[in-house]
Amino acid sequence: MAGLLVVFFPLALLLFMLFMERVEQPLRTGGSESDVEDFLDNARPDEMDTFVRFGLRRALDKLRLRRRSHLSPRGSETSDGGA
Questions:
Q1: CA distances from 82 to 10, 70, 73, 75, 76 (A)
Q2: Is 38 buried (19+), middle (13-18) or exposed (0-12) by CB count in 10 A?
């Protein structure tokens, strides 16, 4: 029994360490300070709600998506505007 513990404990510890690496990776690559300041200056209420519920990364993605949709050509946003 002790022999099995000697073999399986290091393997279980290694698997746990690999799992924790995957958990920590998104935490290391968070938004930069300028991204956070920009978000707090320009966020809408629904984006702040996303920030509170899901965190900064998803809220920044939502803000960037909104900005991209504002930068797209007006003709591609809706097709019923000129008819």
A1: 68, 18, 14, 9, 12
A2: middle
Cβ 60 vs Cβ 35: under 8 Å: yes
What pTM was computed for the model?
Answer: 0.45
Pick from 78, 50, 74: nearest CA to 64: 50
Q: Could you tell me the residue ranges of all domains in the chain?
A: 1-27, 31-73
Q: What is the pLDDT of residues 33-76, one digit of tens each?
A: 777 788 778 888 888 888 888 887 788 888 888 888 877 665 45
- Per the prediction, the chain carries an average pLDDT of 79
DSSP string, 20-72: HHHHHHHHHT---HHHHHHHHHH--HHHHHHHHHH-HHHHHHHHHHHHHHHHS
